[in-house]
Amino acid sequence: MTPIRLVGRIVLRIIGAVGAVTLFVGRGLFRLHPFHGRALAGQLVQIGWLSLPVVGLTALFTGAALALQIHSGGARFQASDVVPAIVAIGMVRELGPVLGGLMVAARVASSIAAEIGTMKVTEQIDALVTLSTDPMRWLVTPRLWAAVLTVPVLVAAGDIIGIMGGWLVGTRSLGFGSAAYLANSAAYLESWDVLSGLIKGAAFGLIVAASGCWWGMRSGRGAEGVGRATKSAVVAAAVGILAANFVLTGLFFE
Amino acid sequence: MIRTVGLHKAFGPKTVLAGVDLAVGQGESLCVIGQSGTGKSILLKCILGLVAPDGGQVFWQDRPLDAATRPDFFRRFGMLFQGGALFDSLTVWQNVGFRLRQRMPDARARALAIEKLARVGLGPETADLMPAELSGGMAKRVGLARAIADDPEVIFFDEPTTGLDPIRARRINDLIRGIVTETGATAITITHDMDSVRAIGDRVALLQDGHIAWDGPVAGMDRAAPLAGFLGRS
């Protein structure tokens, strides 16, 4: 095979894959009739509520570590006072959405891919079809919408907990007064900082759920196939989040 | 009632179905037998549309089964999957009443599901169990109850006794025979268990090398030369 033909084949394959994933997500998002409200409610709990502890703990330690880093680094050019503002801006713009998204990816993309993959290899998906139920509507649509709706809420919670992590360190170890720290945190925050982070959260939620569903639906046979689908879902979700974060940050702030 | 004409299916270079012609009449119980890997389950999935055939056509009541007619067909048939294929996240009654819950309140669907569970010999105490709490034989029975929950006109059985000991296999065969006789449903059973064929079938078809190599009444299969190898006769 000539190099040009090889490159052409790879490009065509990438275009084909992007098209297939786009169609899959589009069908998953907009096949709403009949609407499976019970399935959506279950996924809101699974993806949103049950992810709160891990997202919250991640944000708490990240906010606390960020405060220590900025205090220590800022001391080199007499800028230790900016700790509250930079922790707040860093959390809501970047670290809250990205780390929250990555933690949800680790927890949720893997579980969605494993669950759907297992259903596929045990013929449960075939059973759904024979019971006049579209697997896209029953399995994919509720997961996509639950992730799009709950990850921004998780990001918002993570932002608050992260800022409070910084506040804890700032007031206990770095000598900030409590009221002054909180006032400084709020003073430099703009509404777009918060909103952009929430939009990122929705986008990352979609990436996480879409990765889990896509790889789960394409799971190979047996335990090995499900394991491979799970691994692929987490890797794709994590890389997708980081790439989307770069693109969205460029769109929002450049 | 159901007819396949020239069904073809290949996976890469391996041809699994090479022009399968088969017909099942109203109220008839057909067993499709064949060695492992001969494409029995693929034939079943092609009939159901779960796997797209490369060629040929499936007819139901003389109408081609396609995207337009399949939803109506699916409303009138039930299927027992080889491993049960029960939904892990739903209780036993929710599995049995899965289709019923789409068109009636939960209380009514649950009552009907418990009736169907009783028909397959399971008491109401099993209704709230999860599939992971069931033995293999119980899971088959729940799968059977789900298959008959909506009083289907056609029932498919994919290897109904696989993985069961001889006593439980005989019970499942007896249940299937009783249900098919009682409801008058058309039945298509995929199996390599000759005890199942004798218990369930009116007719038997041998799938071999991608074709139907023999098709005739169960009563005549012991004298059929093409079945000699499969039945272990010299």
Automatic annotation (TrEMBL), chain B:
InterPro entries: AAA+_ATPase (IPR003593), ABC_transporter-like_ATP-bd (IPR003439), ABC_transporter-like_CS (IPR017871), P-loop_NTPase (IPR027417). GO terms for molecular function: ATP binding; ATP hydrolysis activity. It comes from the Bacteria. Keywords: ATP-binding, Nucleotide-binding, Transport. The keyword Transport applies. Residues 2-234 form the ABC transporter domain. The keyword Amino-acid biosynthesis does not apply. Pfam families: ABC_tran (PF00005). SMART domains: AAA. PANTHER family: PROTEIN TRIGALACTOSYLDIACYLGLYCEROL 3, CHLOROPLASTIC. This is ATP-binding cassette domain-containing protein. It comes from Paracoccus subflavus.
